[in-house]
Amino acid sequence: MKLIVVDNYQELSERAAGVLVTEVAVKPQAILGLATGSTPEGMYAQIVKLNREGKVDFSQVTTFNLDEYAGLAPEHEQSYYYYMHHQLFHQINIRPEQINMPSCDLEDVDQFCREYDQRIAAAGGIDLQVLGIGGNGHIGFNEPGEQLRVHTHLVDLTEDTIQANSRFFSSAEEVPKQAVTMGLGSIMLSKKIILLAAGKAKAEAIARTVCGLITTAIPASILQLHRDVIIIVDREAAALIT
Ligand code: F6R
After folding, report:
1. What pTM does this model have?
2. Is residue 242 part of a domain?
3. The ligand 1 atom nearest the CA atom of 40
């Protein structure tokens, strides 16, 4: 793992955007795995700026998003579909048919999950996967528990995650209780991974990811087994690394 500790969120966003833009410059047909949440918002803003300045071209890029709330319609402001289209896709020159998002539809969800993994494999696998991390150590919505899942699947969100994400909704009751997420196999098969974290609420999860034992209690700890992971964190998120 390569650890980059930066001074502030702006620097984190610029460093992360730099990794992504370099990937696309080297491979214009790159397959990108993308995350949502508050952490990558600054990175997406920076990418939009670089695209407008003509410094990166997304016309041949394909994207696969990590996860989506189950049962939240695409037009719902808190759906990850809405987030991605407003923060990024509508603002860059990506072709709509090259965008892949997990479905929020619970009908035939198992079949959808199988097909999503097949689509990733058929595209040649993910070249660069962007990850955030939950305060409980989740990546995507692979929540801590006794077992971790390999493939894309429907997951019950933990109470920790529902509480953490209730800041985006008017109450915790409104947060969907389930989500569709890529499994850890799909994430670990990515050729390169960047994990972003900012703020002290992420410090323990980051410390356990970087220097703890590999455990299902901290799903991100499995990233220690990946050969090309860059972790970009601010000083607060890095505070407990020993
Ligand atoms: C979102 C995702 C989640 C978030 C994590 C951190 O697509 O996969 O794992 O990255 O919950 O969220 P923020 O950045 O809002 O703290």
Report:
1. 0.97
2. no
3. 14
